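HUMAN: Quick job: go over this next protein and say how the chain folds.
***
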Amino acid sequence: MLPGYNHNIVHKGITFHVQTEDNGIDNPFIVTHLFIGGNIVATKKTSYMDIIKVNELEKIVADIMKEQHKKMILELRDGLYDSHALVQELLKKQTEKVQEPIREEEKNLNIDEETKNLDEVILDYLVETSNEK
């Protein structure tokens, strides 16, 4: 079983969590979930039963995991999950909130790893995966 991938991504003001895991050769599936606050919004599941005996299985599974994880992130960015009921509910709540003016001291906050926008996460991810080759 290979280590998985986890990213928190803010899309339209909502924090999503993308998680990809390998279930191992006893249950040869790669599963990617898209969460909002512990609730599953979407799932992708890929079997690798048909290649379980190939050489370099770990490398092939790792590549499939990376691609599946990246695809979920790109689909999120492209709005594929925007019509999900939970996403719609949260977007509606956002528009109902009264916007308070931003205080001067809040304008120059540092952005940490957890609050990167989707493009920054994807860029980091692509750089990371290109360095592994």
Remarks:
- The longest strand covers residues 14-22.
- The beta strands are 5-11, 14-22, 29-36, 39-47.
- Residues 5-86+112-131 form one domain.
